[in-house]
Amino acid sequence: MTEKVEEIANSPGLLSPDRPNLGAHPAPCPVVGLGASAGGLEAFQIFLSGAPADAGLAYVLVQHLDPNHESMLAELLARRTSMTVRQISDNMAIEPNCVYLIPPNAQLTIEKARLRLSGFSEPRGFRRPIDVFFRSLAVDQGSNAACVVLSGTGADGSEGLRAIKEAGGLTVVQEPDTAKYDGMPKSAVATGLVDQILPVGDMPAAIRDYFERAQASVVSLPDVTDFLLGVCELLRHRLGHDFSQYKRSTMLRRVQRRMQVVGASTGEEYLDRLQTKPDEARLLFRDLLINVTCFFRDAEAFDFLRREVIPELLRDKGASDTVRIWTPGCSSGEEAYSIAILLAEAMSRMAARPTVQIFATDIDEAMLHKARLASYPQSAVKDVPLELLDRYFYAQDDDFVLTQSVRDMVRVSNHNLIKDPPFSRVDMIVCRNLLIYLNTSLQQRLIPVFHYALKPDGWLFLGSAENIAARNDIFDTVEASAKVYRRRGVHRQSVAMPLFVQPLAMAAADAAADRHRIQSERPDSASRRILERYAPPHVVVNGDNDIVRASSRTGKYLELAEGTPSTRVTDLAKRGLRSAVRAVLEGARTTRKRTVKRDVTIEVDEDNATLVDVIADPLNDDEVLLVFQDAGATPEAALDGDVQAEGYSQEDRIKQLEDELDETRSRLRTTVEELETSNEELKSSNEEMMSMNEELQSANEELATVNEELKNKVDQLARANSDLQNFIESTQVPTIFLDRKMRIRSFTPATRALFRFQEQDRGRPLSDVVSRADHRELEALGAKVLETDEPIERELLIDGGKECYVLRVLPYQDLNAANDGVIMVFADVTKVRQAQADLARNEDLARQRSQEIETLYKTAPIGMATVDRSMRFLRVNQRFADVAGHEMEALIGRTLQDMIPALATRMTTPIKEVFDQAKETVNIDATVRMSDEAMRDFLIDFYPYEEDGRTTAVGVVLTDVTEVRRLEKELRRLMDELQHRVKNTLATVASIVNQTVSSKTDRGDLVQTLKRRIGALAATHTLLTLRDWRDASLRDILQAELTPYEQHDRIKLEGPDVRLPPKHALSLTMTLHELTTNAAKYGALAREGGRLAVTWTVNVDAQGKALTLHWIESGVAGISPADVKQGFGTRLIKSAVVHDLQGACDYRLADGGLNCTLSMRF
Amino acid sequence: MRTLDGARVLLLEDEFLIALDAEQILHELGAREVETTSTLSEAEERAQVGRYDVALLDVNVNGQMSFGLADFLRSRGVPVVFATGYELRDRALGIDPALCVSKPYTSERLGQALHAALENSRP
Q1: Interface pTM (ipTM) of the complex?
Q2: Does domain A23-215 match CATH 3.40.50.300?
Q3: DSSP assignment, residue A755?
Q4: Which of A990, A995, A1139 is closest, CB to CB, to B38?
Q5: Which are the catalytic amino acids of A?
Q6: Residue by residue, what is the 3-state secondary structure of A687-753?
Q7: Which site in A80, A574, A595, A1159 is 20 to 30 Å from A990, CA atoms measured?
Q8: Touching check for B104 and chain A: CB below 8 Å?
Q9: pTM of this prediction?
Q10: For testing the chain A interface, which of B11, B13, B16 should be mutated: the one with the most A CBs within 10 Å?
Q11: If pLDDT is split at 50, 70 and 90, which confidence band does A656 have?
């Protein structure tokens, strides 16, 4: 048969209060809380290095941190794991495979699978953040949680670990030997609740394995019942505890958990382990004892209580009665309040309600505090029936608080069940799950205490695994399964009290003696009689020594004193007895033991004195029984215990010694008391010291943590600093760091181009350093940046503009982003600026050129135009427009054909060719009749206009060559004319030479004659040339010819200024030359007294102008015609004018000389 | 060489000295008679009435061209030789260089031209 744990867990009525506790809001994955203090960084690092990133666990790291210091833990740990490391912020949700870190100065808890942060409620030094978190983790996640306590001093984490354990979570502690600081691990181990003690490196795997086994939550066991019986058998065998009455489901769950921890997968395997490893039984036993106290734990037992016990308790109780109930080991009070609720429920149906006093006692002040608060988490009240919850609780925050009526029933106080005297006369004792922690002998001793405390027929209610230690003699079993017992012995006599009351410390000595004593205690009426008649006189005094009860026959010892009547025994005791009474009372109170003062002398009357023994025997509370007995009469039977021997020596000597001893003891006791007092003081000082020590330890832990972090950070800073230093040393950008007062904080070496910095200049004002820049300007800029917080950029000219820097001044911000100076960064832009200037200059030049070209284009005497493919003008210049006979604007966009039809016919074809071939065509001749009918000659060039390698237009250059052509023709004509003239002149010269040669035989004469003739011709050529061959002055011609012969005013020239055409001038020159030659040879210029007159007139008529010239020689007597040779000269004179000019010549010899008249028209 | 043996020559030359030289050369070449004219109109008159064996005409006479006269003379069977100072232009005008002498000309050159002209006019 195979059963599954889950099935058992879900079986009704069996397990409901003890279901595996996964918490109210289980996180999506198991949550592992890690707590550490001093030395924690290292432990965390080792842990995270070994933690698999895909284990599906969330890790929450709680470290004691300096509240005033920013933690670098996240930074440092993130390097050790590939998991996401988050510093916790409030309300952060838990996710698997993440690491969560507590931030400084915050208290961390977990609620509904979300991490919550809050301020610390305790002052520094008392904070226990690990405990706080672990506790909340236990409540919120239950068995879904694990806790790990790592290195640290102090005890933080131990309490939390207990909570985790109680909630069913896994508890792991670092092996104290391996921890840097072993305080926390040792403390945790000391709780005895640790599942595994491991080196940190082994933890991640162990935790992962644990939760993996938990997830495979269904573990097969061959037969649950047999298996559990086997386990119980082994436990009983090993430890003597019988768990067979323990709830099977609870037991199974605890065993199951233990199997998870040790890694046992089958029942056999675990049973084997129980058998072979003695420790395992102890560990399992301890696990089985872990309980969460909660309301109505063990519902069936409480049900029994409600049904059977409570009504019985309240029976016959009226308003004046009191019901006293004692719950020793009440812990945080759940059971006490559960009982109170049951009573309140029951009483609600009663008319007259008794007073209920429930004494809830424990030794743990922390627990008692909780009990007093009476405020419980939801988990604690999960078994409270709803109607009771409504009636007796109210909600406060997330907790449930008990109503005042219930709280009023419960008195919470500190009481040590083992050491302190028990409460008495109680109706019921509820002591659950306390005895089980105690060993058998202590249990056996406590059961009689309960017996004593209870009223007759009082009830005893124990925990499910507890019993009355076989003391059936004093208790009856009412209901075994509910563990309800009832005190045997109906009557309980108060006289038995002092006898019964045994200091518990003594009771611890011998349980067997107890049994004997208890058995002998049988109060009845006989004993009462004995008490009245035979018992020695005695009184019972309270704490104030007032007599509350007195027996008969006390007059021998007590008497009323004078003054105000008093019931105080110390006042009533007879003289001589008072000091003894006071001493024994004090002794009895301080020692809680019976104290005897023997052989006290009292005066019976004036003569007689008697010896008496005074015995003080402490009763319950502060009451003391004071017994007076005549010396030697103290019956042996009345004195049992350790003082029995006292006073039973019959010898006086011994008695005397014993008295002395008694005195000494009394003194010693006083001394001891004094010592104890000072010891108490020392203890309390010690406690103070301890608490101070804890504070110091916790401060020390924080410091150690901070120190570790700082060391790490310092290393990083050193590296960063080194990087920065290298950067500053190597950067080529001049940079200066200045503080708020413009003092040099730092600078880069490149600044030496501008400043004469020395290393020792750091800290000196910037103005102290020799600089090529203007200090005042720099400082003013720095001040402005400091003021405005805004960066400034400024251009600096150095050396009158030879170098140029762009200065950028930026605010220097410290780590808090506060303005703490300025940074000046200089960028050398000299070359950039030069290039910019060059560029600007070139641009200017280009613009100028462009303008020149544009001007040229506009004003050039050649026409220019650009034309697109559709023969439309894109652009024309003024000259082109002039030629075209249109305004420039009128041409743009129009076609050539429209605007210049005459030229268009000559231009269209070349333009098309240029478009097609992208090659220029030049010097196209065009003679065109223009719109004004004038013929014009043009030379036209065509150029392709290219853009991106494509001909987009054709440029047309039109040169008007009409004038050039005309000049060319004129030149050609002039050349022809010149040739004609030169050739004629040469022909004339040739003729002169021919004629002269043929008429002269004398060679010398020939040369002279030729020279003169050609010279005359040349002279007139000169005159004509001076006048551009237009004409020559007649007077000039004559003067040129005649001047060489002028002497004594023999030559007279007379006539108007007349200018002769070239042909006339030349013809007349030759004629006049021959006349002159003749005159110089034979005529007037050859003889003394000869005279020559040349006169001329010009007549103008209808046909034009006519020149008549008279050549008249005189004073030459005796010349006959025979003397005149009919040679070439004379022939020329007579014929040239006639032939050449169609003129006339009258040539004759008169008395005085030759007369020649030449006439011609011109 | 007496090319112009016994010939009557019409000479048109407006420069007296050149005309004088031409007459002399023509006589040396055997011309019996040389009729010298100095203007185109005078030469035309003579050409109308006179009988000439050959004519030597200056192309440019006082700015007037003698081509018309030459045509007239040729139509009357009179061979014509031009005297000119404008060789290049005249050649461009289509005048036969063989029948053209360039001033100043020699008797030899003139003789060749006259001979050619006379040869051309013979049937």
Answers
A1: 0.90
A2: no
A3: B
A4: A1139
A5: 37, 64, 156
A6: HHHHHHHHHHHHHHHHHHHHHHHHHHHHHHHHHHHHHHHHHHHHCCCCEEEECCCCEEEEECHHHHH
A7: A1159
A8: yes
A9: 0.38
A10: B16
A11: low
